[in-house]
C-alpha cells in the first residue's frame, strides 16, 4: 500500500505484522468479539489497518462517513451501540475530537477506556490517531496494549469466528431520511471482493497497481480496494486523504498505476484536468467506474483522453456488499457506455413487475432484484426495514428500474425511490426536507435531484414560503450549514407557489424535477 500524501508505504509483511499487533491491542483495551468500533475519518493508512484488525478480533467495524455532522454521527454511533471510535483529531473543517466532546462532555474527566456518556451509553473508548487528548487513547496506546496473553487470546479467538459473523456495518439512508446500518458478514465481502477482482482481471493481470481515490467508508473503497488487495495480492495507491483530482492524476504517473477506480464525478474531474496531456499515463490499461449512473459520453472521453481502453462499468448497492453487475475489459463500446455489465458469478438476478412481482420478459423494464452470497445479513436493529427489502426467499429488492438482455447485461432505466446520487453519494430527499421544514420561514419543502454535468445530479430544494415571508437561497444554505453534511446542502434553491399534483393530491416529483431543470436551464447529458 502507498499513501502518497502522507508518505506511507507498507509491504504485505509489514501490514500483516501491524494488523496482528493492532488486533491484540484492541483486545488489550477490553474490546471483545461482537463489539462495534466506529472508524471515522478520511482515506488514511489506519483506516485499512483497523478494517483488518477488527475483522481478525471479531470486532464489527462501523464505517462512519467522515463528513457527518453532530446529529448524524450521534445517531449512527448510538444506533449500533459503538463501544469504541477511532478518528484523527481533525480533517479539513471537520473537528472530530471537538464534536465527540460536544456529544459526550463526560470524556474530558474520564479515564481512557472508561467513558460513561449519557447520550452514547455504549461508548467506552475513543482512539485518536495523531494527538494526545484528555480522556482518549492515542493510536500508539493500542499498538502497545497487546501483551503475550492477548496475542494468545487472539490466536484462540480464530477458532470461534464464523464466516457468517457480522463484521462490517455500512450506513445507508432510507426514504424516511433515517440512516440504516447495512450489516455485512465475512462471507459477504470476501466473496464479493474475490469475484469482483476476477471480473476486473486481477487473476491474470501482472501485479496490478491500483489507484484508489474513492472513499474507504464506502463499500466501493473498502471491499473493492482493501479486500481486493488482500484476496488478490494487488498493490493499492491512495493519492490523497480527501479527493483531489490533480493529486490523483499525479499519482497515476508517479506510482506507475495500471488501474484506477472512480465515480463518474471523479472521472469528469480527471478528464477535465487542464494539464492532463502532460502526464504519462501509458501504463494505465484499465479502470472501473461505478457509484452512480455513468453518462455514455463520459465513458468515451475516458477512453479517448486517458487511453483507458479497458474501462469497466459496475453497479451495486451497499446492501449487496456492494457489486452485483460488472462489465468486462473486452466489452464493446456500446456495452461499456450503455449498460452496467452482467451479473457477477454465483449471483442470481431477475427483473420483475414492481406491482405484481412477476418476472418480465427480457428487454422489458422492471425492478431489479438480486439473490446470492452478496445479500446483507440485514439492517442492524431494524427487522421491519430488513423485511421490506429482502423477501422470504432472500431476494433483495434494489428499488432500481432496469432491463436485462439474454446475456444478463443490464441497463439502468431509473429509480423507484427518489434517491439522489450526487458524485457517488446516495442522498435521500426526506432527510433534507425534514431539516428545511424546521426553518421558520418555510411552509413546505420538496427536494429533487437535477442533472449536473460534473456531479451527475445536484440537490435542488423547491420551497413554499410562509405567507408574507421573504427569503433568499443564501439564507437557506446558511441554515443548512453545520446541520447536515456539506454534500447534502442544496446547490439550487427555488421558491415556488405550488407543486405538480396527481389527481389524489400526491406530489409528482418527476414533474417537479422537470420543472426545476427547465427553470434552471439544465440539459440532460446525451
UniProtKB/TrEMBL annotation:
Boundaries of every AMP-dependent synthetase/ligase domain copy: 3-380
Annotated AMP-binding enzyme C-terminal domain residues: 431-506
Keywords, in A-Z order: Ligase, Lipid metabolism
GO molecular function: medium-chain fatty acid-CoA ligase activity
Catalysed reaction, written as an equation: octanoate + ATP + CoA = octanoyl-CoA + AMP + diphosphate; a medium-chain fatty acid + ATP + CoA = a medium-chain fatty acyl-CoA + AMP + diphosphate
GO BP terms in the entry: fatty acid metabolic process
Documented EC number(s): 6.2.1.2
Functional summary from the UniProt entry: Acyl-CoA synthases catalyze the initial reaction in fatty acid metabolism, by forming a thioester with CoA. Has some preference toward medium-chain substrates. Plays a role in adipocyte differentiation.
Family affiliation: Belongs to the ATP-dependent AMP-binding enzyme family.
UniProt protein name: Medium-chain acyl-CoA ligase ACSF2, mitochondrial
Organism: Channa striata
